[in-house]
Amino acid sequence: MPVTHIVTAGMGGMRTAGDLVAWMQMSRRMKLTDAKHYVAEKLKVDVMDLVDEDVMYTLRNDLGIGTVTPRAGGPEGIRAKCKVADLLEIEINSVQRFKSLMR
Fold it and tell me: What HEC string does 45-60 produce?
């Protein structure tokens, strides 16, 4: 169910900020509007920029939080997910497990 929610949240998933907003809705039980404002604040952008693919592609590359079409040398997979967890100040189970294995 959570994956279905992320995909259908209507903000474009990883193309924009839909995945980040969905993380906040699921991990902190935020309402959609609150989650959008929280993510926009963390990304230091306007709420309207969250759905702009051009703005978000550049921002996601700059922050290293993953894109749909990864660029050579850019973060993907668990590396990008670790950055998302740090940026949004949330715990993601797979990130916690990965970090515990690296100690």
Answer: CCHHHHHCHHHHHHHH
Residue in this structure with the two tokens 């797979």, named with its chain if needed:
94
3-state SS assignment for residue 51: helix
SS3 at position 69: coil
Give the integer Cα–Cα distance in Å for 81 and 12: 17
Q: What is the mean pLDDT of the chain?
A: 86
For residue 89, give every residue at least 6 positions away whose Cβ sits within 8 Å of its Cβ, in sequence order, or none: 42
pLDDT in tens, 15-24: 889 889 999 9
Measured CA to CA, the distance from residue 11 to residue 52 in angstroms comes to: 9
pTM of the model: 0.81
Average pLDDT over residues 71-94: 88
Could you say which DSSP state residue 47 is in?
A: G
> Please, are residues 19 and 6 in contact by the beta-carbon 8 Å criterion?
yes
Q: Are 63 and 43 in contact (CB under 8 A)?
A: yes
